[in-house]
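Fig. S4 source data, part A: sequence.
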Amino acid sequence: MKNISLKSMMVLALGGMMIVSQTTAYAQFGGLLGSKKSADAGGATIDKDTFAKSADQAAGNLLAARIAFLDAKAKMMDALQVKSDSVTKASEALRAQEGSTSDKVKALDTASKTTADADKEFEAKMAESTELSAESKAKFADGTVKFIEGVVLEKAQIETIQKLVEQGQSLVQSAGPLQKVGVLSVVKPVTTMSTMVPGDVKEGTSTLSKIIKFSQSQKIELPKDATDKLGGLNP
């Protein structure tokens, strides 16, 4: 009995730490969502399996957004004659990604680290004033449109993940000692996504702002329907 009691206490302590982490993560969405509340806030309930499916779908959408970013950068880097090997490989790795929600979230983090140097070189090249050829301008325009798609898709996940954070808190709080470990295992990837996405969206819109300014300096015309998709994110 003493061992079971100790295990229960450890699980409860871990659950409390997760709730604190989720509360902190939830607060990070404030600057991106303003005062808007999720439709399910305050009283809506969800079962663990449904929650896990929703979390996996959100992770899959984040993967799709990151792939769009990487494919877009590969096109634009090619236009700027910057090596894009690491970016292309990262995109291929994400396309081949299978497994749990946690595996997908880890893959997102790995992709960011493996392309960091290429990202810096890409932005440094945009800071130069060399005139692009007509062919390179067309490639850069295609990449910009793809990058916009990624920004919009990633931004669309913010409210979904905010909702999942709220639902995850309820699941953890309502789970019994013996169920809490299983609940925490499906909630943890959401907590990670909630700390990751706000910064990623801000970084993405910042990079997009530089891309659009470069396009303007090069007199590269972008399709209006692409820029219209940005809405309030328009840099």
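Fig. S4 source data, part B ends here. The chain has one domain: 2-28+46-233.
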